[in-house]
Amino acid sequence: MFSPHGPSLHELCVQALSSVERGYDLLAPKFDHTPFRTPEGVLDAAVEVLADLGPFDRGLDVCCGTGAGVLVLDALCRGRITGVDFSAGMLDQARSDHPDTTWVRADARALPFAEAFDLAVTFGALGHFLPAERPAIFEGVYRALRPGGLFAFPVDAVPPVTSRWYWATLGFDLTMRVRNAVWRPPFVMYYRTNRLPAVHADLTAAGFTATAVALTAPGRYGDGSPRWQLVLARKQADAR
């Protein structure tokens, strides 16, 4: 599906009936040929915004997958870049594509870092966590950043009710909830659980000062509103 190099319908069905970790282990070799990978336009727009907020030394890609976020960090960071993910398959693919990056297998809800990075990013990963799990992720990123460090990630702007994307994401999330109610292990992937007000509240509770800027270049909805916003969460410069 998606392209001659992408996964087949059968492969996607096997993934969808697996756990998140096992599903991404299976999908890893073909993941970059699916629409699930963060679009290049979003990555480029993030670089454009973040370039004015540096300089940055060491960078961290949280839930790195095959390494799309590393492309952003490569463009912005002068020091060592680290990617962390819990899927061994995704890390194997990332290691093959980006051999100069440090790759760490770990759970994003228990990051094993302390004041080691100046910039942390994550792309397309928050939908794989339930809202109750976000605080642990944000607290771990906060610990991983040096004082004054920045955590950045895109979120979907709320689509207008007249948009096809509004109804597509609603239908997808409802389907996933039914799937997880009747099938084990669960496969957590939701589009509508990371709205900006809730994300902002969790970031504030973790200690960040958070804002968001619209990313207009990657596209707009039919009513002219941007499809993406980039969250910018800053750790206090004097945080100890």
From TrEMBL:
Residues 60-149 form the Methyltransferase domain. CDD domains: AdoMet_MTases. Keywords: Methyltransferase, Transferase. Pfam families: Methyltransf_25. GO terms for molecular function: methyltransferase activity. The keyword Methyltransferase applies. InterPro entries: Methyltransf_25, SAM-dependent_MTases_sf. One of its GO terms (biological process) is methylation. This is Class I SAM-dependent methyltransferase. It comes from Cryptosporangium minutisporangium. The lineage of its organism: Bacteria, Bacillati, Actinomycetota, Actinomycetes, Cryptosporangiales.
